Amino acid sequence: MSVVATQLKKGQCIEYQGERGIVLGIEHRTPGKGNALIAATIRSFKTSKTKTIRFASGEKVEIIETDRQKLEYSYKDQSGYHFMDTNTYESTALQEDLVADALPLLKEGQEIEVLFLAGEPVSVSLPPSVELTITSSAEGVKGNTANNPSKPATLETGLTIQVPLFVKEGETIKVNTLDNSYMSRA
Question: pLDDT: is 45 or 131 the higher one?
Answer without folding.
Answer: 131
